Amino acid sequence: MVEVKPVQIGKYTVGGPLGSHTGLAVGSIFYDNHSIVEDAFAGVFNEEKAAALIDRVNGLAVRYGIQMAFDVIGADPDAFCKFIDFTSDRTDLPLLLNATEAEVRVAGLEFAAKKGILGQSIFASLNEDTEDEEIEALGNHKPASIMILANDVTEPNPQGSVDLIKNYFHPILKEIGCESPIVDLGVMDAPSVGIAMRGITAVREEFGYPAGCAFSNCFSQWTGLSSLGREHVNLSLAASMICCRMAGGDFLHYGIIEKSRMMAHALGSAEVFLGFAAKELDEYNLPEGHALLKMFKLAETA
């Protein structure tokens, strides 16, 4: 097993030995059809509601003693920059710069460089369709980390992900100068969360990279679960997060930011178990304000 390679995102640490730091719980804001967005291409949104959502996540991270992040999503270059600007002015938590189009991702990266927040930013993400302009931009403007989508559709298993990283992503990362990316193991449907969990373990053991997945992606397809009601969906979502975290997941994308409160509680609970074992058995000094210290005090501060 290789040495694990934690990544520093601002004052937060993603990866490393399991339990030494908490996982990174990520929620999407300004996503497609987000209720706070009035015009996704003009960058018009309800600033009061957006600020309230950001403040909520900031508070949850402190209250539960876990690391959280914002997946800032954009569909237009100028609008994307507005979203990044607004979010970064209100938090020091990590920001994923996420867009479906390469030109939008590049615009966000260049804006982050201009604003001086590259150290807070994660480029999301490189994939098998990565364009040359993105590689060039990343070479000129290096964010704190780069996310790679290691999901080989022709070999959708842990070994396929490992091979894809070796054969496709490593030359690109070398050209950019990125030594430790964050690996996103793709999730196609609900059962494949288990395969992603195995992939997380394989990537950490083979390369030492922080790894995880967007386990929330499969829930829209789980129609039988949806018919049982929102409570059951949320319980399964929380179970997915805990399972992925216990498999070594460092990157834990729970979906829309509106679910942040429930997911913070679920992750905080898991981090108590992992943190105590890391402290007592591995003799790690846990970060200040870790969930192990916060979760037992929630009743006092409620």
TrEMBL record:
InterPro entries named among the record's database cross-references: Dihydropteroate_synth-like_sf, MeTrfase_MtrH/MtxH
Molecular function per GO: methyltransferase activity
Organism field: Ruegeria spongiae
Entry keyword set: Methyltransferase, Transferase
Entry EC no(s): 2.1.1.86
Similarity field: Belongs to the MtrH family.
GO BP: any one term: methylation
Transmembrane segments: none
Name this polypeptide is given: Tetrahydromethanopterin S-methyltransferase subunit H
Domain of life: Bacteria
